[in-house]
Amino acid sequence: MVKLESYYASRKTARAHAFITKGAGRVRINNIPVEMVQQEVAREVMLGPLEVAGDIRNKIDLSVRVKGGGFMGQSYASAIAISRAMTGWTKTRKEPKDHPLTRTVREDLRKRLNDYDKHLLSGDDRRKEPKKFGGPGARRRKQKSYR
What we know:
Elements: E1 5-11, E2 14-22, E3 27-29, E4 32-33, H1 40-53, E5 60-67, H2 71-91, H3 103-116, H4 118-121, H5 138-142
Parallel strand pairs: 3-5
Antiparallel strand pairs: 1-2, 2-5, 3-4
Helix pairs in contact: 1-2, 2-3
């Protein structure tokens, strides 16, 4: 039986789970090949980490399950999950003889992905700041007097 390794990522309200295995380079998003994704910009965002990986892409299979949010939020969440999956997959210490990549190739891939994804993995600066304790609430803003 093939062992699946799962990695999670989110962007705005979109959540993605990426599953990575040894394989022949197949990438599926919600059980649909990534080449059939309609929005070209979203497809390019999803394939960004795989372009950085180069020919290593042909040695793994990726399956991403994504839901919530819009198509761009889903594509960024998928890209982050794919990047985390490939980075985590290179860190694995279990059964090194079964791993299709050598240690030097894995370290190089991890370094390239970390350099590429610094802005994706650092979090989103555009999120709304949480409400401060003791600040004006909805009642004080709507009513002139509440005594």
